[in-house]
Amino acid sequence: MSTSAPKATDVSSGQQTREVREAVVVRFAGDSGDGMQLTGSQFTLETALAGLDLTTFPDYPAEIRAPVGTTFGVSAFQIHFGSVDVKTAGDEVDVLVAMNPAALKVSLENLRLGGTIVADTGSFGERNLAKAGYDTNPLEDDTLAPYQVIPLDITQLTMNAVEGFGLGKKEALRSRNMWALGLMLWMYDRDLTASAAWLAKKFSAREMLAKSNNAALSAGHAYGETAEMSGNLVGYRVEDADLPPGEYRTITGTEALVWGLISGLRSAGLERLVFGSYPITPASPVLHALATMRDQGVYTFQAEDEIAAICSAIGASYGGALGVTSSSGPGIALKTEAIGLAVSVELPLVILNIQRAGPSTGLPTKTEQSDLLQAVYGRNGDTPVAVLAAATSIDCFEVAREAVRLATKYMTPVILLSDGYLANAAEPWLIPDLDALEDWPVHKRTDTADFQPFERDPETLARAWAVPGTPGLMHRIGGIEKEQGSGHISYDPANHQTMTDLRAAKIANIANDIPEQDVALGDRTGALALVGWGSTFGPINKAVEQARERGHSVSHIHLRYINPFPANLESLLNGFEKILVPEMNNGQLVTMLRSRYLVPAVGLNKVTGQPFKIADVARAIDAALE
Amino acid sequence: MTTAIPQPLKPKDFASDQEVRWCPGCGDYAILKAIQKTLADLEVAPEQTAFVSGIGCSSRFPYYMATYGFHTIHGRAPAIATGLKMANPDLDVWVITGDGDGLSIGGNHLLHVLRRNVDLQIVLFNNEIYGLTKGQVSPTSRVGTKSPTSPRGSTAHPLSPVAVSLGAGARFVARAIDIDQKHLIEVLTAAHAHRGASFVEIFQNCPVYNDDVFHDFTDRADAPDTQLHVEHGKPLRYGKDGNRGIHLKTGTLDVEAVVVGENGITEDDILIHDQTNKTLAGLLGTLKPPAFPQVLGVLYNDPIDSYEVQVAALGEARSDVSLNDLIRKARTWSVA
Q1: For residue A233, is pLDDT > 90?
Q2: Does the pLDDT at position A5 exceed 60?
Q3: In A239, A475, A498, B283, which residue has its Cα 20 to 30 A from A570's Cα atom?
């Protein structure tokens, strides 16, 4: 579908006529060193401040500075914004800002036919064309015939704008992104105020750079106004979204996770969160964000490796703090033995897996959701843990809180699955009143009467949290099988059966402490259910919405709880004739659903490192209903 | 009416109710006894004390102590102990490890816990063999050690726990022998007094898989001539008659074993032990019988701020910072 069909012509903005759009997808693409992520983030902020709904998709290579001008060094930032409920980063790009030939080449396949290309002609020299694999200049042949091309010598225009600041050529050219940002802000009728303030702050120590970047930004904006007068450029207006009233900020999945963990720490009544982690893409930003939260009782620990990271978190939980660790697939694999220890000694632990494309090193900066089976089953022994998955960037907040609640209430590791897309994608967030959220204070054991380290709460089956430092409760724990109750080493066959059963029952029992599975969209019975989990929420939901508008009996079910499944999931699934499971993996949830409930679910699988498009899901819905 | 007067705890009060399961004659028994005596002598509170171990014979240790204890996974005790201290810096935490656990599978963690200087007592039971897995060579096994995995004798050179710990930046490094209770307790007491990571290597005899491997310096009859017990500020002297000593060769950074009164050597030619001298500690750590005595005691003790002190200096939690305010520190906007 195209989201950019003209709705009406707006003449209210005063001087110039702007075409009105309901929603637009803009993609900034350039070299890794061109500052595209900054440009996109700043465009996002201005768009959010203007009251629009939005979703972003930073799409960048693993290399920090890949050879200049190459296709594999292209870094892009896509933003979908509009007056309607925006749930994905957009199937097709309406406006592509291409800072060099390589950026044009790799971005073209996502550009809508008839879409707009703003290209910096100044960077389309022979060398750059050759590096991108172009024999002839696409701006001069018929390669781009299906699109509207706006060729601008942004390089020269930027040089002109910053002339007089005494910058060297290299430094002057680094403002090209600000010129492009200024132009795009003009194109969508946005203000420059916040960006100007941001530049002033960013370059507060180098006033000259603040001024020159600001000059480039203003020049880009002014160029739009001037060119519009002469009819060379068209400006657009996107109406404000109908968002619920309240105070907003933008939030990425990473930020939401961090706030959710700290909020959960408060709700649990715990004073200290110890976060042991080891740098890995795309999980490191969680460590960066938490490292600034000492005032909130967060102690971060950059460990020597993934194993030490999780072990420090386990040690912290043993000591009465909330132990949390994070990583991505390969790092989670390294943590596996320690997860088993936490299961065996029954300590609370939150494990964040910001999934990326695998196997092995895979595609570190690209998104995938192929660690589901690893999370649920990937350990030696019968080693059940709770597994939760976040559906959107904002959802990361609630899911992080829920992970803390379950970990501390059930004395168990909880694996929280996010992914590279959610980690980086930003959305406007109606900020909740954090003081008004529900509390679930943790009870630590202090009573010495009849204390046994593995005696269990009859309702939750959780053992007592008896923390070193507590008088009279000295005891020993370990990874060797222990006797139910006393916790002493036990090789007794019947006891091992008992303990294995108890560990399984404790996790299975969580199903009675979580909400029943609801449908995200549609009826509770029907011809077809789409069952998803994780960051596929947006495209599935939109595709189902559109199919329902076409009169189809389709519903969307989205799972937050992967282990255990909600108690009513089986009966809910049985209300549908067909079940389709879209996943960014080779068929993992679908395998679980089929084996668990013996339902004829079929998979829709995509492992390109890119999120689903709405159209991908829509085609599969149509095929399933044929 | 009688008032209960709290009695000082005795060594046996630090023993748990669990039956000790090491082999008869194992050196671990002597170490267990020494640590229990040390804790009693120091009058530590059992509830403030935790033993954290990895995997192996030595790592069963926590089960036998009436303190808090955590028998974890192979090699990872330093990392778990670090987390425990981050949760509660006031705890008195001991790490119990072995030559395989601490220097092979867990070598990485040992390096980093030492360089971070986490306030722990790290006690490495070195028997130069894998015991619990039935006798394979370990990273401290001597070249030529025959074992199920090296039937023709091992080839790789052993690493030196003292050199490794000094290289990793440890600020306290000491050595002792399992059966020398008096000296072992002195060393453990000094390790406990040191704030920061204290590394203690204990030569521990495995009577089943590597019996008497340390006989060249542990045989009691020859001990005066094969052991040198260092004391800070005292000459590095040893020998039955106390007239043997370590002398720094002139013109080179090397030492030789000398006899006072022979070859013109006088009292003044004997090196004085300086426990704050890292170079000297490294040198003493390399000396071996028969040319030299095995040097025992506190080789190096030069404290700096512990990890806990450094972390606390970075700031503590503040109750006056509202989460609601903090979350709004980003750019916010209102929708009416």
Answers
A1: no
A2: no
A3: A498
CA A260/CA A238 separation, integer angstroms: 32
Question: Nearest to residue B302, comparing CAs of B273, B319, B277?
Answer: B277
- Kindly state whether A491 is in contact with chain B, defined as any CB-CB distance less than 8 angstroms: no
Classify residue B173 as exposed, middle or buried by CB count within 10 Å of its CB (0-12, 13-18, 19+). Answer: buried
Helix and strand numbers, DSSP H then E, in chain B: 11, 12
Q: pLDDT value at position A8?
A: 41
Q: What is the pLDDT of residue A510?
A: 98
Q: Give contacts of A318 with chain B, Cβ < 8 Å.
A: 70, 80, 83-84, 87
Q: Which of A243, A248, A469 sits opposite B48 (nearest CB)?
A: A469
- Residue A11: the pLDDT is 43
Q: How far is Cα A156 from Cα B137, in angstroms, rounded to an integer?
A: 69
pLDDT digits (tens, 9 = 90+) for A19-48: 899 999 999 999 998 999 999 999 999 999
E strands, A236-344, are: 236-238, 246-252, 273-277, 298-302, 322-327
Q: Are A63 and A72 in contact (CB under 8 A)?
A: yes
Are the C-beta atoms of B18 and B60 separated by less than 8 Å?
A: no
The continuous run of DSSP H or E covering B244 comes out as: strand B244-248
pTM (two decimals):
0.94
In chain A, pLDDT over 90 holds for what percent of residues?
91
Q: Report CA-CA distances (Å) from A31 to A64, A81, B120.
A: 10, 24, 49
Buried b (16+ CB within 10 A) or exposed e, A467-492: bbbbeebbbbbbbebbbbeebbbbee
Q: How far apart are CA A225 and CA A158, in angstroms?
A: 16
Cα-based angle A335, A341, A342 (whole degrees, multiple of 5): 90
Distance CA(B9)–CA(B225), nearest Å, equals 37
CA–CA gap between residue B310 and residue B323 (Å, rounded)? 26
Q: How far is B209 from chain A (nearest CA, A)?
A: 24
pLDDT at A443 over 60: yes
Q: Which residues of A touch B68 (CB under 8 A)?
A: 468-469, 474-476
Its ipTM equals 0.97
Which pLDDT value is given to residue B3? 61
Residue B165 burial class via C-beta count within 10 angstroms: exposed 0-12, middle 13-18, buried 19 and up: buried
Residue B335: list chain A partners with CB under 8 A: 51, 243-246, 248
Q: Which letter does DSSP use for residue B12 in this model?
A: G
The residue ranges of chain B whose pLDDT is under 70 are 1-5
Pairwise CA distance, residues A178 & A56, whole Å: 19
Q: Nearest-CA distance from B31 to chain A in Å?
A: 19
Q: Kindly tell me if the per-residue pLDDT of A65 is higher than 60.
A: yes
Could you say which of B65, B68, B111 has the minimum Cβ distance to residue A468? Answer: B68
Q: Which of B79, B317, B326 sits opposite A315 (nearest CB)?
A: B79
Judged by a CB distance cut-off of 8 A, whether residue B328 touches chain A is yes
The Cα–Cα gap between A595 and A574 comes to: 14
B310 CB within 8 Å of a chain A CB: no
Residue A524 CA to its chain's centroid (Å): 28
